[in-house]
């Protein structure tokens, strides 16, 4: 479960507050979307939820652990084992093949051999099983993003954070990716937090956090607590 | 994950070149040093004990004439050596040297000046009277015998001369020559051997004969002028000579002290060798720093994603350091391999001049040169990778993702 208590985030000088005293709770296995206009603080909230950023004020509890009190080593371990990321850009390493990219998180824990079969299965499930030996620059945008999803899922994370994963894709590939996320959520019970500004993709989620200038919209607030 | 291939190859070449240079310069310099050490130093002895030279003082001379100093007025003060150098208490030295476990062996000598004469030709030499068995044990002279053996000197009336003198005077083994001392004493000697150090001056100005013969000719039976001592560990020579100096008024000199100017030359050689190598390594290190810094700048996205998927700062630091280690070790290995080949090539070049009996450069293939060259390349690469590695490990993934 992800719990946020009184989360605020400031940036820059003079100080600009991007998130204002947000309170939320995301249950295990939920698929939620974070939406809102550009600059409303969607990505900032996602990064705070996923341990990539710290709130200026407030507490973020992930699986009962307050992230503020975790060491850098513990946070990296958490990211490695319990959290998966998908970004708008795939961020695949160009020198590594598809399979090597997917196995990167496993490599960090010395689990390459034991995760190889999982990687093949995941890539097949995502429809890119035939491309394991290719390099990222030999793939289409949709294929690259699917490989990035495989990399995010290889450690079977409890939480998957996706920041506009369809932003660089055409409609067809975007729909494929969204359907896959939905399927992963249903089959593997992975908690998914998706940032999107597209209402069509927001509809894939069971719940929606709608942000307006760093505040959770009154309209949707009842869905949170 | 070696990136920026062209620059990496250039840096690899830079490190290899500096290592190669260090290996080849060291090979030539240490080879020359080995040659000079063998020819000059090993024949000098690790420690040389010789009689102290006492000079005439007017106070001593005054006493000869009267105990009342006031009665004697010198118009011209007496000066000069009291007598030829001699080791007075050599039997005590023999006893000490025989009992000291650090001493490998020792050889007493009597040195004097002489003229080799044959028909109308003559040549001035330093005549060294020795005990051949002992001299062979404390020096490598037997290695430089061109004809005959140094041990052949044991028979009275025999002499060993240098190849230069033999050539000048048209002499061969079993030929006879006259040995004339400064006092005019002359003795007919049979040539039993010819040595060849490969050093023109040494090959013309030294002659060896039996210690007894020199003692008889100089009419000083039992007299010796010095004792050459060979130690088990020549690096101990300095401390041992200091220790022995306290025991007597005799001169005790270790080989470093006796060849001080040579040692200074070695120091200057070492400084220049290290200076060249350090300069090149610094340039190569800046290259490594530059390549890694550019690489990190270009790979910010990848570093960010690695951090996002759980690679901690220490792992990122290690990843970058490995690149520096890779460049350093591969560059170092290539450098010592090519350096070895260059040394082999240099050794095969035929020279018109003679060095130590050979017509090529003396090259040292001491393993320490190669180890030092590799370690210098390796550690300079590690140090130059540290700053880029630290800066990579401090990158915040979010700053980079946000900037996209």
The helix tally of chain B amounts to 14
Bin the strand percentage of chain A.
25-35%
Quaternary form: heterodimer
- The termini of chain A sit apart by 13 Å
Number of strands of chain A: 10
Number of strands of chain B: 10
Unreliable segments of 5+ consecutive residues of chain B: none
Attribute tags:
A: 225 residues, alpha/beta, 36% helix, globular, disordered C terminus, B: 404 residues, alpha+beta, six-stranded mixed beta barrel, 14 helices
Plain-language structure description:
The complex is a heterodimer of chains A (225) and B (404). Helix content of chain A is 36%, strand content 25%. Chain A is of the alpha/beta class. In chain A, strands 6-7-8-3-9-10 form a six-stranded mixed β-sheet, sandwiched between helices. In chain A, strands 2-1-4-5 form a four-stranded antiparallel β-sheet, covered by helices on one side. Chain A starts with a strand and ends with a helix. With 404 residues, chain B is α+β, with helices and mostly antiparallel strands. In chain B, 52% of the residues lie in helices and 17% in strands. A six-stranded mixed beta barrel of chain B has the order 2-3-8-5-7-6, surrounded by four helices. In chain B, helix 1 (5-41) packs antiparallel against helix 10 and helix 1 (5-41) packs antiparallel against helix 13 (367-393). Chain B is elongated and about 105 Å long. Chain B starts with a helix and ends with a helix.
């Amino acid at each position: 479960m992800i719990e946020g208590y009184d989360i605020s985030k400031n940036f820059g000088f003079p100080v600009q507050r991007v998130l204002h005293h947000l309170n939320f709770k995301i249950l295990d296995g939920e698929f939620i979307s974070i939406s809102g206009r550009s600059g409303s603080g969607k990505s900032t909230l996602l990064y705070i939820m996923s341990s990539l950023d710290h709130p200026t004020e407030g507490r973020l509890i992930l699986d009962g652990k307050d992230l503020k009190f975790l060491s850098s080593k513990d946070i990296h371990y958490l990211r490695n084992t319990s959290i998966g990321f998908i970004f708008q850009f795939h961020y695949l390493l160009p020198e590594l093949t598809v399979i090597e990219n997917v196995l990167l998180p496993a490599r960090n824990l010395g689990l390459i051999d034991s995760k190889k079969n999982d990687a093949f299965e995941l890539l097949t499930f995502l429809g890119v099983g035939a491309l394991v030996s290719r390099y990222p620059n030999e793939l289409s945008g949709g294929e690259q993003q699917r490989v990035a999803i495989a990399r995010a899922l290889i450690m079977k994370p409890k939480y998957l954070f996706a920041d506009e994963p369809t932003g660089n894709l055409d409609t067809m590939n975007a729909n494929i990716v969204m359907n896959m996320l939905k399927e992963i959520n249903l089959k593997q019970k992975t908690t998914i937090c998706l940032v999107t500004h597209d209402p069509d993709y927001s509809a894939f989620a069971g719940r929606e956090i709608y942000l307006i200038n760093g505040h959770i919209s009154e309209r949707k607030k009842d869905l949170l607590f | 994950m070696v990136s920026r291939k062209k620059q990496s190859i250039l840096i690899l070449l830079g490190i290899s070149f500096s290592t190669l240079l260090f290996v080849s310069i060291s090979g030539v310099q240490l080879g020359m040093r080995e040659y000079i050490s063998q020819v000059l130093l090993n024949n000098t002895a690790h420690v040389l004990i010789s009689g102290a030279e006492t000079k005439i003082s007017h106070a001593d001379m005054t006493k000869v004439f009267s105990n009342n100093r006031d009665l004697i007025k010198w118009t011209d003060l007496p000066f000069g050596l009291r007598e030829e150098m001699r080791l007075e208490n050599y039997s005590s030295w023999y006893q000490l040297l025989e009992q000291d476990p650090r001493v490998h062996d020792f050889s007493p000598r009597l040195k004097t000046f002489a003229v080799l004469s044959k028909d109308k030709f003559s040549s001035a030499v330093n005549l060294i009277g020795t005990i051949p068995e002992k001299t062979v044990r404390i020096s490598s002279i037997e290695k430089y015998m061109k004809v005959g053996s140094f041990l052949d000197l044991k028979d009275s009336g025999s002499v060993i001369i240098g190849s230069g003198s033999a050539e000048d005077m048209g002499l061969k083994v079993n030929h006879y020559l006259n040995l004339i001392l400064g006092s005019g004493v002359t003795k007919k000697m049979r040539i039993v051997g010819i040595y060849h150090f490969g050093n023109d001056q040494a090959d013309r100005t030294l002659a060896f004969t039996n210690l007894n013969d020199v003692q008889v000719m100089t009419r000083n039976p039992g007299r010796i002028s010095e004792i050459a001592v060979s130690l088990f560990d020549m690096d101990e020579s300095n401390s041992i000579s200091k220790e022995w100096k306290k025991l007597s008024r005799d001169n005790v000199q270790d080989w470093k002290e006796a060849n001080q100017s040579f040692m200074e030359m070695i120091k200057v050689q070492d400084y220049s060798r290290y200076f060249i190598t350090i300069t090149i390594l610094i340039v190569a290190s800046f290259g490594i720093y530059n390549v890694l810094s550019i690489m990190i700048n270009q790979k910010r996205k990848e570093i960010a994603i690695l951090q996002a998927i759980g690679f901690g700062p220490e792992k990122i630091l290690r990843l970058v350091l490995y690149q520096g280690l890779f460049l350093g070790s591969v560059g170092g290995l290539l450098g010592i391999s090519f350096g070895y080949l260059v040394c082999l090539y240099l050794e095969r070049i035929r020279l018109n001049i003679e060095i130590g009996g050979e017509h090529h450069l003396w090259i040292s293939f001491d393993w320490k040169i190669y180890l030092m060259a590799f370690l210098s390349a390796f550690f300079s690469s590690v140090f130059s990778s540290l700053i880029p590695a630290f800066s990579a490990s401090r990158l915040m993934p979010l700053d980079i993702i946000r900037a996209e």
